[in-house]
Amino acid sequence: MMIAILVIYFGLMLFIGYLAARRVKNSKDYFLGGKGFGPWFTAFKFAATWESGVKLVGSPGMAWNAGWSSLAMGIGTPLCYFFSFRVFGQRLKMAFDHFNVLTLPQMLEKRYNSRAVRVIAAVAILIGLGGSLVAQFKATGEIFSAILGIDYISGLLIGSIIVGIYCIMGGYLASVWTDFIQGIIMVFGSIAIFLATAHVAFGGFSSDLLSQINLALASVDPSLLDITGGGKMSWSNLFIILAITMLVGIAMPQQSVAIFSMRDVRTARVAMIVCVVFSAILAWTLALTGMMSHVVLDPGEVKNPDMVIPLLIPKVLSPLMGGIYLAAVLAAIMSTVSGSIVVAASSLTEDIFKLVIPHTHARHPMLCNRLGATIFVLLPLLFAINPPTIIFWIGVFAFGFLVFTFLMPMLGVILLPRASKQAVIIQMLCTMIIIPVWTIWLQGPTGIPALLIGLIGAPLIFLAVNAFYKKDELAPEISELWNKFHQL
């Protein structure tokens, strides 16, 4: 039954890729889906890419380990959507359309009138998303091998080939359509395992479920009721999570593209509401499932928190529902992978190929686009076959690398009209060096997270350099953009 469900799911993803390929006519279609997506597709694209497989497996495990403090990210996520769509999103969409570009590096080039900014931004995306994809492909291989009972290499090839085919064929349009389906599966799977766990643990869902959970947690470990989980979630980590979450929509290229591809700025208002509901369902169902698992699972079985979901599925779900939840886990991972592939491919083809081989790109743009996507399927796949020992650190720094490299340049697009290209260039280069160096060599000895260094260091570097190179007058194109902002 489980294999049959997964085969149907994989077949559906490939069929969607085929349908999308028939609709793609040019680079605008391939990388932005024609920029005509309404609130539902925009919301599910943004949320499904952000709420990755870590959510469906990691959140219940975190709830098992740290209790109520595991809801910190879930409670903060609505702030991510509010800032992404209401505070930043409408201006980002307006700026992207104003400059009439296809990629984020191209927008930064236009904003700061600097080819160097475009090239640095493209390289940052290739490095950050490339490292992230290696880690994601590795996780894909491990999940597929565990679910299907096959070896790691076979699982890696199956997962990578499926997501690679529909991304290469249909580009961003296929990514949006599949994310919509995957988002629905994620919601359904999360609700299903929550209700099934509540039934096994307490006889079903009831109005006093939270009280029952609290009593169960108190009997296991009273610290699970504490906001910090007895120190397992420090106040500094809570602050970093909250701060980073609010910046995702503006500072992560694979998230920003969902905003760029909206039909119009009004789309952001409804998309925000859809995203908040989506996130709330996942956050509460998965966290409560993890806490209730203390009643269902034998503590001796849980060697590490990530085992909670694999152990829980056969105990609370039928083979049919278990297959659906596993499909939801795979959907979450594949949605994140597909979004990263398309954004990385757009930077490679539109910001590197177009500058290095302009005549070839002009004659065969779609061939170059699909070649770029193919490269970002094959290279991470090759690294993930025999991942280097540094793979853990690659996954850790990729997130902070992207967020803090792009944070201040993107704020300069929508909030800082006098931001200079010198400040952008120096800050981006410094961040691209500091984040990996700190993550690999200094984070352990100092005990200071690289994310905290980036959160403090990137703005300080940017503001210090900008104070020296600050512009006195705005270029006409920038003045025109700010006049549009004031009309919002």
The CATH superfamily label reads Sodium/glucose cotransporter
As residue ranges, the low-confidence spans are: none
Q: Based on helices, strands and strand pairing, what is the structural class?
A: mainly alpha
Distance between the termini: 52 Å
What is the tally of helical segments? 20
Listing every helix as H and every strand as E from the N terminus to the C terminus, the arrangement reads HHHHHHHHHHHHHHHHHHHH
> Using only CA atoms, what is the Rg?
22 Å
Q: How many domains make up the coordinates?
A: 1
The helix content is: over 70%
User: So, CATH architecture?
Assistant: Up-down Bundle
Question: What fraction strand?
Answer: under 5%
Features:
488 residues, mainly alpha, Sodium/glucose cotransporter, 20 helices, 82% helix, 0% strand, globular
Describe how the helices and strands are arranged.
Layout: H1 2-23, H2 27-32, H3 39-50, H4 53-66, H5 71-99, H6 104-112, H7 115-148, H8 152-202, H9 209-220, H10 235-251, H11 253-260, H12 267-296, H13 308-316, H14 319-356, H15 358-363, H16 365-385, H17 391-414, H18 421-446, H19 450-469, H20 476-486
Helix pairs in contact: 1-8, 1-14, 3-8, 3-11, 3-12, 3-14, 4-12, 4-14, 5-10, 5-12, 6-7, 7-8, 7-14, 7-16, 7-17, 7-18, 8-12, 8-13, 8-14, 8-16, 9-12, 10-11, 10-17, 11-14, 14-16, 17-18, 17-19, 18-19
